Amino acid sequence: MIEIDNVTKEYPSPEGLRLRILDSITANIPLGSQLGVVGRSGSGKTTLLSMLAGLERPNSGTIRFNGFPVSTAGEAELSRFRAREVGFVYQTFQLLKHLSAVENVQVAAEIAGHSKSRSAAQEALEWVGLSTRLKHRPDQLSGGEQQRVAIARAIVNRPKLLLCDEPTGNLDPQSADQVFRLISSLSMEISATLFFVTHDYALAHQLPGRIELERGQLSRLQLSGGALS
User: Fold this and answer.
1) Contact at 8 Å (CB) between 164 and 137?
2) Is 118 inside a domain boundary?
3) Would you say residue 228 lies in a domain?
4) Burial zone of 41 (CB within 10 Å; 0-12 exposed, 13-18 middle, 19+ buried)
5) Rounded to the nearest 5°, which phi and psi values hold at 89?
6) Considering the domain boundaries, does residue 145 fall inside one?
7) Mean pLDDT, to the nearest integer, of 179-199?
8) Which pTM value belongs to this model?
9) Residue 147 and residue 156 in contact, taking contact as beta carbons nearer than 8 Å
């Protein structure tokens, strides 16, 4: 279970005021859920993902992932948690340009301490349909292929939490649909809890669950078994 309990996040503004980005968010989300996260720009979607990964801490409230205290754990514990349990996919692919596809994925496996990082990276690239692109550098790949390398990097350690922040935002409609379906399928295959941030409500509605944020507040939480308002 992911337990989000009364989480609030604020940032200082240039004028010296406090900007409340997340406002008293509370939700209990079963492990293995697939959730589209939607809302207008500035509604707190990316901040929510950062909090779930322990990249940022709430000003108040707590977050626990399968019993692990994400919001209060020390930095060393959080680093291990992210390396072993969390996969990230971003709008910008964030690949290392001087490394090949397999080397980009291998880095993530090595950080997590995988004993067979090279073979794990090759297997992950096979999962995303890039077995013939192992030695290609990012500038030798299309946008859709680069995002698939990023997905392989995210799932190489079979994380239990998969956080995707606008992963289709830089892709053409056909590539975006392929990437969405791939992420959805792979998250089910590895039994990861998926948070898929998107401005595309049509994509979000294809997932079993949905989180809607409005001005930092949770306006709707829909799980596969029903909806809460």
Assistant:
1) no
2) yes
3) no
4) exposed
5) -130, 125
6) yes
7) 92
8) 0.90
9) no
